[in-house]
Specification:
The complex is a heterotrimer of chains A (191), B (244) and C (460). Chain A has six helices and eleven strands. Chain A has 191 residues and is α/β, with parallel strands linked by helices. Chain A is globular, with a radius of gyration of 20 Å. Chain A has helices at residues 2-13, 33-43, 57-64, 113-116, 121-124, 141-148; strands at residues 47-51, 71-73, 94-98, 101-103, 109-112, 127-133, 137-138, 155-159, 164-165, 173-174, 181-187. Chain A starts with a helix and ends with a strand. Chain A has a single domain, classed as Rossmann fold. Helix content of chain B is 46%, strand content 11%. A four-stranded parallel sheet of chain B has the order 2-1-3-4, sandwiched between helices. In chain B, helix 11 packs across helix 12. The longest helix of chain B has 17 residues, at 188-204. Chain C has 460 residues and is of the alpha/beta class. Chain C has helices at residues 9-16, 20-42, 47-63, 65-78, 89-103, 114-118, 121-127, 137-144, 161-172, 181-198, 224-231, 249-262, 292-297, 312-316, 318-323, 334-344, 361-365, 372-385, 391-404, 407-423, 425-428, 450-458; strands spanning 82-86, 107-110, 131-134, 201-204, 208-210, 215-220, 234-240, 244-245, 270-274, 282-288. In chain C, a hairpin with a 4-residue loop joins strand 5 and strand 6 (215-220). The longest helix of chain C has 23 residues, at 20-42. The termini of chain C are far apart. The chains are: A alpha/beta (191), B alpha/beta (244), C alpha/beta (460). The interface between A and C is large, with 72 and 89 residues. Strand 8 (155-159) of chain A pairs antiparallel with strand 9 (270-274) of chain C.
Amino acid sequence: MSREKILEAIKKNKPAPKELPEVIGFASTYTNLTITFAESIRKAGGELITVQDMTSIPARIRQALPGMQRIADLVNESPDTYRHLLNDPASLEVVVLKGRLAVAENGAIWLHESDCVNRVYPFITQHLVLIVEQHTLVGNMHEAYVIMGNMMNSYGVFIAGPSKTADIEQSLVIGAHGARSLLVFLVGPGV
Amino acid sequence: MRVALFVPCYVDQFYPKVAIATLKLLQRLGLEVEFPAGQTCCGQPMANGGFEHYTAGCNSNFIKSFSGYDHIVCPSGSCVLHLKDHLHDEKQEAEADRIRSRVYELCEFLTDIVDLQSLDVSFPHKVALHQGCHGQRGLQLSASSERVVPFFSKPLRLLQMVHGLELAPLDRPDECCGFGGTFCVSEEAVSSAMGLSRIADYQQHEATVLTGTDMSCLMHQEGLIRRKQLPIKVMHIAEILSGS
Amino acid sequence: MTYNHHKDHSAAAAEFLVNKERVQWHDDALWFVRSKRDKAAFALPEWEGLRTQASAIKDHTLSCLDEYLQQFEQNAARNGIHIHWALDAQEHNDIVYSILARHGARKIVKSKSMLTEECHLNDHLEQKGIEVVDTDLGERIVQLNDEPPSHIVLPAIHIKKEEVGAIFHKHLGTEAGASDPQYLTNAAREHLRQKFLTADIAITGVNFAVAETGSIVVCTNEGNADLGVHLAKVHIACMGIEKIIPRTEHLGVFLRLLARSATGQAITTYSSHFQRPAAGSEMHVVIVDNGRTTQLGREAFRNSLKCIRCGACLNTCPVYRRSGGHSYHNAVAGPIGAILAPNLDMKKNADLPFASTLCGSCTDVCPVKIDIHDQLYQWRQVLVQEGYVATGKKAGMKVMAAILSSPGRFSMAGKLARKMLKWFPRLAMNGKLNPWGRQRELPEVPAESFREWYKREHGK
């Protein structure tokens, strides 16, 4: 059987045991995570709006994405307002989801499977809105994985900016296959 | 301090002026320098072609020629790197080991051993420095642009001691020139294209002189420059530092 | 799309170099990516420390690879993922096809996977009448143009936008003469949306497989892997045995290095972690050897298995930038390809380790510290010893070694060579006999060698 042959060949050919490094990762030194995060979102091609609380978000979404009809706000609205839209995900124009945590250094926002509601929503929608609570910001990826360790058991994704490509002559084009834009609301009393 | 001068085989035959400049520079610094007469080649031409197993003769001749010196100095980063990485001899491995730790590229020697702080030479020209890859990345003569380390460059620091010398800033300060030993003929098209794009960088920054730590890189680029009859003079760094 | 009758690297590169303007454009595009990488790397003071950690994690993993693969298998199986093992490319292709056949699948969407390129999976499936659509934009471009990718991260880096316009005009019906990247990308988006929505099965590669959780991580910028996987009923992920890392926390190290090294981004847009199939769906992971265990046994070359396929060594390589990916006639081009390919087939790839000046830029740029240029040197020794280098070269090297090892023969030969050059310069400058002279002059011949001068000056 191939499995046994492969494992046997590895046993025969592998080098002498080498230890893992004792320390993995580096502590971040960003003095203001909000500023760093905002800068990272901008670099990743997204837009960031800071708000004190959630109440103004639905209005701000309509303002930022005018003319959108098929909006599934899975965070702020009752399922009755969007349930019919979810039958045809390919027609979704805007999906609003909430991230679990976010990384200041690179603008990556972590969504667990339940945060996506359905795995395909963050990808198939034309425009994606993600809500991040300020207290969930961490400095870098090492710090993120320490927190995420016990969150992962099915599917999860870091999203940093809208879908993009530079496959034609290294020209950056926003909106490859996934969302054409990413709007992030950073929510917190001090932002 | 017994210092031996190792002159790369092709420098000996085609660029004696570079060896003479190296010798005079070292002598001017008050060093007693000998040129062991039996020396030939470090063996790199065979080894880089995949024939390291043909270099035993070169190795034993090198050890025979250079045993007993405190320092061995060579105006080529590439040859020195080859010796440091590959000089071995089953019959006299202890001596090979000793030589490997005592062989220096010229700029490295002037910086680390002589601790040269000033030079009384002048060279009022705009100079482009070609960082030979083996010296730069292999011997760590200077920080390579890929690595996130504080900038340093031994050849650059020495050139900065020369009065009136202006360094040309380059767009790609440490891109390979394309010489590469047998590569320069086996991959002639790529080799020449690489050299020409280095030369375009020098011209872009109005350098009138090209210098470097390896005559092999310079020989290749000089060949391209002369074919195109471009107004760039090619000199080994020893020629500039010695004021010759 | 394979390279059955390939030219050797030198000849293919010379052909690529005929169009100087195009080579300049290719070189500039890749140097631009290298510059973006530099900016991203230098923004992290701990960059060299990250490289050291990444390298050490991979070294450790290779030294316990069998144990981690089994741990991965157990955990993945517990999560409902089907694990398959393939000794070689053929078995990999057979396994994938058997899964498709069991589901009666006819339409496949595939996101980027260098492993499936290496195994020529597309050819295999297409011969069986299955439609395989590569969904990464660059890969779709080269697929429509019936050629292999020329770069592991930027598959269509060798194609100009006007040419993409022509390819899309022919296959997707875009406007004739259109070359705006925004317009062309949007056309591909619309075209591929339909493929995503109607595909039976999605195939992806694997960037990292985490042993302690049995999960796989897939990184894309376009979102094509996720769209494919989440819309299809079955997900097949194909990975080489070397994709394993021990723990989730190690992802922090690799994800900080990967995109920065590849494109200069701080992270790819999507880093997707698959640990369980979605409700009602099926997930398969095919673990492939295809020569990797042999490479593991080659002490000088085993650490090539640390590669995370970022492509930084291609972007920085002055030879790659001026010869193009196809000149390497191997799924993985550039310096890393040149040390991986001989392991797969020494005869076919004997030219590749010589397609380098050994400048070492690849080694310095590598985020997992593979000693690429030292391995190129070592492969040259192995290829010569195993008889894969022309006999003429061997004879020449033997003569050269004899001359260069003896002071007497060296002085005589040197004198002779200098006289020859003086008397018959045109002979030496005949480009057919001596490639040196095609674009270069020879050095001016001095009257005497240094050793002659020294003897004269210092007596004796």
